[in-house]
């Protein structure tokens, strides 16, 4: 893994902590990327040995993200996206999927990982008609996120809020619900909320591998029940088929080689 030096006139790059695993980097390892350090690969590999299904979960979660963004842009007519917990750039990033449907789409990415920030500068480009922006902020600070997102997004028009694989990092369920409420409360009616997160229904090995990860020094990630995940959509109108295992959410025909069901559930809801 190498990181480039700042170009003349650019801000210096942030300090990267390579001594403890980071969620975005371990996720990149499972997705077959190359943006991780040895500490991330070691934890990611230990996890995969205990629970090989984690790779399917990562891929199925990305597949859900792609189909959800495509649905939002193509069928729901959404042109503005607020994607919190961006992760490291990979195939089918939110702006690429949205702008393939609507080149004028505007996307604001938010993450608190310094390596994501480095890559955001280099890779999160836009069509000339649209826009992308990046906010270095913590999910636990919805006011800052909303305030800075308003630089790029028009809050007079609908916005899709996306929390993909991030809410599990907020261990307390009521705190996680309150973050969702505060974010949605600051966004206009007629917008959407898309979410996926790991669940604890199918595999005991998943829970055990997750417990090992949570002891590794990385920020812990909590697996929740599908009912708890559905609870994040309270007050919204759920889009069919509701909150389901990621591969079951509006699958593309023909179904790809992923299992029909994985321990990650997702859904899309409309803010009335
Ligand atoms: C599992 S990755 C998911 C990445 C991407 N959303 C996807 O679905 O592929 C979780 C992301 O959330 C970010 N994240 C975790 N906790 C965060 C927090 N408190 N504030 C902002 N970002 C956070 C991590 O840095 C990482 O990029």
SSE string: HHHEHEHEHEHEHHEEE
Gyration radius, rounded: 18 Å
Averaged pLDDT? 93
Percent range for β-strand residues:
5-15%
Main sheet specs: 8 strands, mixed
Query: Residue ranges: pLDDT <50 for 5 or more in a row?
Result: 1-9
Can you describe this structure?
The chain has 272 residues and is α/β, with parallel strands linked by helices. The protein has helices at residues 23-30, 38-50, 54-75, 94-101, 114-123, 142-149, 173-185, 204-214, 226-231; strands at residues 80-84, 106-111, 131-136, 160-164, 192-198, 237-238, 244-245, 264-270. Residues 1-9 have low confidence and may be disordered. S-adenosylmethionine is lined by residues 23-24, 27, 61-62, 65, 85-87, 111-113, 116, 138-140, 164-166, 169.
């Amino acid at each position: 893994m190498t990181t480039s030096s700042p170009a003349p006139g650019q801000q210096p790059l942030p300090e990267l902590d390579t001594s403890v695993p980071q969620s975005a980097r371990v996720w990149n390892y499972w997705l077959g990327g190359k943006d991780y350090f040895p500490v991330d690969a070691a934890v990611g590999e230990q996890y995969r040995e205990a629970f090989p299904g984690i790779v399917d979960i990562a891929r199925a979660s990305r597949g859900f993200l792609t189909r959800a963004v495509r649905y939002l842009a193509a069928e729901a007519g959404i042109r503005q996206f607020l994607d919190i917990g961006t992760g490291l750039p990979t195939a089918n990033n939110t702006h690429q999927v949205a702008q393939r449907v609507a080149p004028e789409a505007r996307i604001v990415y938010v993450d608190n990982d310094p390596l994501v920030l480095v890559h955001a500068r280099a890779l999160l480009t836009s069509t000339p008609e649209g826009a992308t922006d990046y906010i270095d902020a913590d999910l636990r600070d919805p006011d800052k996120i909303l305030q800075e997102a308003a630089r790029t997004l028009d809050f007079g028009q609908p916005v899709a809020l996306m929390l993909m694989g991030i809410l599990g990092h907020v261990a307390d369920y009521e705190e996680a619900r309150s973050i969702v409420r505060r974010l949605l409360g600051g966004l206009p009616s007629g917008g959407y909320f898309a979410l996926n997160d790991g669940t604890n229904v199918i595999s005991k090995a998943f829970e055990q591998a997750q417990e090992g990860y949570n002891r590794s020094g990385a920020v812990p990630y909590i697996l929740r029940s599908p009912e708890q995940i559905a609870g994040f959509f309270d007050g919204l109108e759920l889009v069919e088929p509701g909150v389901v295992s990621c591969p079951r959410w509006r699958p593309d025909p023909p179904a790809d080689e992923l299992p029909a069901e994985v321990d990650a559930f997702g859904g899309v809801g409309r803010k009335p």
